[in-house]
Design goal:
Blueprint lengths: L1 H13 L2 H25 L1 H15 L6 H6 L3
Amino acid sequence: MAKLKDEVKALIDQLPDEVLGDLKPLLERLSEWEATAEVLRDRDLMEQIRQSEEDWKRGRTVAWRDAQRRDV
């Protein structure tokens, strides 16, 4: 993986600043997608998300002011 990163960095270093400016939003978006993919790969976290969605649908919620009073 380190070799691949080095190769990509070398390619980036060859690009003119104008092109880098155009690519920056794409690279930022790719970074966001990687964070999303990481969450999707975490089975326990995904189960917690599914459970919270089910709780929300069934009205099993806590008012924010009550949640603030709890020691978390």
